[in-house]
Amino acid sequence: MSYSLIFTIAFAAAIVAGLLVKFWLATRQVRHVAQHRGTVPAAFAQTITLAAHQKAADYTIAKARFGLVEMAWSAALLLGWTLLGGLDLLNKLLLGWIGGGMVQQLVLLAAFAAIGGLLELPFTLWQTFRLEERFGFNKMTWKLWLADTLKSTLLGAVIGLPIAALILWLMGAAGQLWWLWAWGAWMGFNLLLMLIYPTFIAPLFNKFQPLDDPTLKERVTALMKRCGFAAKGLFVMDGSTRSAHANAYFTGFGASKRVVFYDTLLRQLNAGEVEAVLAHELGHFKHRHIVKRLIAMFALSLAGFALLGWVSTQVWFYAGLGVQPNMTAPNSALALLLFMLAVPVFGFFVAPLPALLSRKHEFEADAYAVAQTSGADLSAALLKLYQDNASTLTPDPVFVKFYYSHPPASERLARMAAPA
Known about the structure:
Elements: H1 3-35, H2 50-81, H3 86-98, H4 102-134, H5 142-173, H6 178-201, E1 208-210, H7 214-227, E2 234-237, E3 248-251, E4 258-262, H8 263-268, H9 271-286, H10 289-311, H11 315-320, H12 332-347, H13 352-372, H14 375-388, H15 397-403, H16 409-417
Parallel strand pairs: 2-4
Antiparallel strand pairs: 1-2, 3-4
Helix pairs in contact: 1-2, 1-15, 2-4, 3-4, 4-5, 4-12, 5-6, 6-10, 7-9, 9-13, 9-14, 14-16
């Protein structure tokens, strides 16, 4: 049995196994949430109304059912691009039209992205204008959606094509260790994006105004000083123009760090609750979660580039994924695309590990926030956010372990209430 056939079988088996696991998890989630829809959990009976609890259940079930259809479609597209020969056909058409070389490879990447985006567009539109609209979360107009799409496409081309061209050039010109140079370029690119995102990219999509509430500003500034955290500014973002969901986050890198509050968050929480939410985010920095995640990203991407450097020279890698490469000519773009298609298929089975680590980090950030501010304020803020975002209070435990990056509300509040 040839290596390419073995790889084809392994790839197909991983797709089927992954799809079965995803369907099993989604149906568990739907069943568990539906079973508990009729009664608010005892721990929340005094703070969450039955109507709010049922809205969260219905929203969770609707998203899970929509996800089932989306998963099936994504699996079909993956098979179409790979084993059914879609990417091979696109590559040959472009070779016949343009010929070989850097231009053809860049056009292949761009065409793949454009076709993939169009094929997934109906799901994006349905989620935004039907599912989110149905539950009162979507605030985006068609005009704004179109403007965002055009900006994202243009920005993707302006930023993505140069880094893609650099990596493709390194693959062909930097020798056997090209993957090491490409990894360095990719990491530098990501750090640069983190640096310029708050100032140059984010304002293309949202308006940011300095926080002008003097009482809240004083509390937040005092908290940050107490925690030893410096930021370039405190800003309010017009998140309500697109969604009713609320959030707060840090953005930027080094001296460009900013604290950003959604306007929806400031409308829903009082000053003490906002301070507690910010303290939670500061907890991530205090425990160096951001640095640890960056180091993990650096390590995983280095391993990924090293693996890509090896498989890109193996005929079985291309043939096993439905592509007939010309090993005497550059196949760099093909290798990149096939690698990006294949890695998530196999990587899905280790997804619970980063999810587990993320939940651990959230518990640590909660504990830090409770130590720095009022635990009652943090609990109240979390309950309001869970309710306003229609997050279910009764998720399936197995689904949580596989997917949830944040612990369920019941676990977070119980941990905060437990004696130190």
